[in-house]
Specification:
By secondary structure, the chain is mainly alpha-helical. It has 15 helices and five strands. A hairpin with a 4-residue loop joins strand 1 and strand 2.
Length: about 375
Amino acid sequence: MAEQASVPGGRPKRLLEQAREKLRAMHYSYRTEQTYLDWMKRYILFHGKRHPREMGAQEIEAFVSHLANDRGVSASTQTQALSAVLYLYRHVLGSEVGWIEGISRAKKSQRVPIVLTREEVAAVLARLEGRERLMAALMYGTGLRVMECVQLRVQSIDFGYRQITVLNGKGAKERFVPLPEALIPELKQCIVESERLLTSDKADGFGEVSMPESLVRKTPSAPFDLRWWYVFPSSQRSRDPRTGRIKRHHIDPSVLQKSMRAAVLAARIGKRATPHTLRHSFATHLLEAGYDIRTVQALLGHRDVKTTEIYTHVLQRGGGAVRSPVDTLLGGSVAGFAPRTALVSQPTIASAVQGWHDPLPETTHHAA
């Protein structure tokens, strides 16, 4: 682990421990904590275990350039590494940020997201089972991110007002998304199962669910309250890496990712679709249906509408925007590329997942 690295005097060990404490004080997730500490360690080792106070912009530039040129990492990974190192200087070392601002950042490539058609979404959902099918349908029906879905708390679902409160969204922003009517019975059943696990854990002398320590200090009983339990809890108890206590965590996102991969292959869909593709599909299908882009922006939790506008590029691709010359040459539309029909106006979001359980005939789909 990062804190085990050592140089004369043990300085990196102390420094990384300070970084860990700062990350926890600022309520960063455990995953982000581990990732940032790993990049800080790599930065120190890359420069021969020199103390960061002895280095500056030139050394940071050399490190991120090494990642891109020698390691071939993506722009997003390079940006993640840079963010971790800059966090070290800003928040742990308290360095003046003037010279930091001049460091060049990698330009992230603008890729049009992969989107499934409604028929492809239905084909994938029809090949999923149990919790994985419910989670996938929920992501498509609400636009939740993968971690937002697996970390969903019981109290976040408001059956009365038919809405879900996203408490742990990206950037620690809270937002509301509509609750699909079609998924209510199964979500209620999941909560019943969470309550059963809570009762069983308490009988075994446990019953605590993972929660931010700041909330636990304010309300010690909260981790044992069903309202704070996960809708999709892990099937096994585990030791919290931060506190050492035995708790019930949420289901690992890899469970949904593996199931989704298998379902896409089984449906014979020639697209590299992941659970996050369901979020892309949610946004694109709402725009296709005539929803205002600002509404979609709010549902997705995007800070800038320009991030949401990327889905308009999806709508402008292919036969929906340009008539292919082969259609003119052959005198009609090619199978599978019929002109887009008129958009329906303002459907309910729940209708997007209505009928997802219906089996579809075996068809072969090709990448757009």
